[in-house]
Design brief:
alpha/beta, 5 helices, 7-stranded mixed beta sheet, 22% strand, 195 residues
Length: 195
């Protein structure tokens, strides 16, 4: 997909309402420091759409961007950042639940996992919640360029085994450095928009 326009719709946080769901959405989930901002910027071909920070846990709300006036990209706040207060961690969890439990949202889901490490307990929990929503789901393994090519397939197979996902789940190894997986992720998004 050629991205011609990116319009920032706004940041929305629990307990406030989410914006009206007038267009199909693709929502991105992942733990803090998994490379979500870099992936989003690589995907849309623009620097600074999602803010990249050396300090994890900076995204504290769901950021909504209208892409090509045809669908909405949702950058959900990361999880697993230890320096947040218990109250803030709970608020972000409730925001994710609020989004997933909204029946009026026509959305597909993208879960990011660091290809260099086995999925964390929070990754396993989040993937289970995304699967429970019964929406299309793609697992994107970030930082794939940092895994030796000879062992990438085996590494992903092990991760998928621990995640216990259905056979129809999308799987994309991705690198914001090399662009690996960009075309495949766009293909998955275009296939599932509006489903």
């Amino acid at each position: 997909m050629k991205v011609q326009s990116v319009e920032f719709l706004g940041s929305f946080g629990y307990p406030g309402p989410l914006p009206d769901a007038r267009l199909p959405e693709v929502a991105f989930f992942g733990r803090s420091n998994v490379g979500k901002s870099s992936l989003i910027n690589t995907l849309v071909g623009r620097v600074g759409v999602a803010r990249v920070s050396k300090t994890p846990g900076k995204t504290r709300a769901a950021n909504f961007f209208v892409i090509n006036k045809t669908f909405v990209l949702v950058d959900m706040p990361g999880y697993g950042y230890a320096k947040l207060s218990k109250g803030e961690i709970d608020r972000l969890r409730r925001l994710r639940e609020q989004y997933l439990e909204a029946d009026d949202r026509n959305c597909s889901l993208v879960q990011l996992i660091d290809a260099r490490h086995p999925p964390t307990e929070l990754d396993l929990e989040t993937v289970a919640n995304l699967l429970d929503s019964e929406r299309p789901l793609c697992l994107v393994f970030t930082k794939a360029d940092k895994v030796p090519k000879s062992s990438l397939r085996e590494t992903l197979a092990r991760a998928l085994g621990s995640l216990d996902v259905r056979a129809d789940i999308g799987v994309v190894p991705f690198s914001s450095v090399t662009g690996q997986g960009k075309a495949e992720l766009w293909a998955w998004i275009e296939t599932h928009l509006g489903k």
